[in-house]
Automatic annotation (TrEMBL):
Domain of life from the UniProt record: Bacteria
Keyword Oxidoreductase: no
NCBIfam families: prmA
The keyword Electron transport is annotated on this UniProt entry: no
Protein known as: Ribosomal protein L11 methyltransferase
Organism: Thiobacillus denitrificans
Molecular function per GO: protein-lysine N-methyltransferase activity
Length: 296
């Protein structure tokens, strides 16, 4: 059975109210996204202890999934009436064909070589090199499957720099991939935090799948202390806002590794952190940057 996917710009102040109303009006699902995602105007939402969660993005997009026979205009009008907001004037509609979603998803994820000795291998694949360090990981609810340049950049840094015995904090752990890789590469103690409880659960599950010891929790549950290495693969705005928090977690002489940064944003991020860190030259992959600096 095919479906209809409706995409419309919404007023961010009314987005959540309209989203609930769309579900009441018969939508099968509604998701809200940043209309400026992937640009320098991207505004990530975060809710660290010292940086409470903000409102939705300045420009939001609603993606609405409807039954193939639903009247789109009628559904939008009914939802607008329920929410007490104007009827959306502009929207686009696409047909989503019925597919074997599990098989389709699996076909899009093959083993990913990070280095000659480090691979990411979905559980439905056989490891190409059984002698390599193979990270077993399935695409799921949490960010971080190794297919994105920012994740690869961080993994390559870990592969190049971990000598064994280090302590490491993965701040914004997503799927837990960076923490798990660090444990497999010899780190002595690995912690990970994320503001999303589902990410914490996924990270626990992935650590068990890979038979490594790692501790994952929400930010407010993380014990005080500093680490040899802090890795944060998030996005530019929260990285800038959390500079004192992240810097405080790195011991003197330790490393801070940052990614989720567009190439044109690298200098702005380094400028915020230079009170604490001396940075190596940025590493770039497909327009994304990884920064690595040592704490004075």
């Amino acid at each position: 059975m095919p479906w209809q996917s409706v995409r419309l710009l919404v007023d961010s102040k009314q987005a959540e109210l309209l989203s609930d109303a769309l579900m009441e009006a018969g939508a099968l699902s509604v998701s809200l996204e940043d209309a400026d995602a992937g640009t320098v105007d991207e505004t990530p939402l975060f809710g660290e202890p010292d940086y409470p969660s903000a409102e939705l993005w300045p420009h939001s997009i609603a993606l609405v999934l409807l039954d193939e026979h639903a009247d789109v205009a009628e559904t939008l009008a009914a939802a607008a009436k329920l929410a007490g907001v104007p009827v959306p004037a502009e929207y686009t509609v696409e047909t989503v064909a019925e597919q074997d979603w599990v098989r389709l998803t699996q076909s899009q994820f093959d083993p990913i070589p990070i280095s000659p000795r480090l691979w990411i291998v979905p559980t439905w694949h056989t490891a190409p090199d059984s002698r390599a360090i193979n990270l077993k990981l399935d695409p799921g609810l949490a960010f971080g499957t190794g297919s994105h340049p920012t994740t690869r950049l961080c993994l390559r840094w870990l592969d190049d720099h971990l000598a064994g015995g280090e302590t490491l904090l993965d701040y914004g752990c997503g799927s837990g991939i960076l923490a798990i890789a660090a444990a497999k590469l010899g780190a002595a103690r690995v912690d990970g935090v994320d503001i999303d409880a589902q990410a914490v659960t996924a990270s626990h599950d992935n650590a068990a799948l890979n038979d490594v010891a790692a501790h994952f929790c929400l930010p407010g549950e993380l014990a005080p202390g500093q680490y040899d290495i802090v890795v944060a693969n998030i996005l530019t705005n929260p990285l800038k806002g959390m500079a004192p928090l992240l810097a405080g977690r790195v011991r003197a002489g330790g490393w801070l590794v940052l990614s989720g940064i567009l190439a044109e944003q690298a200098e702005d991020v380094m400028a915020v952190y230079r009170d604490w860190f001396v940075f190596d030259p940025p590493e770039i992959d497909e327009g994304w940057v990884r920064l690595a600096g040592t704490k004075a």
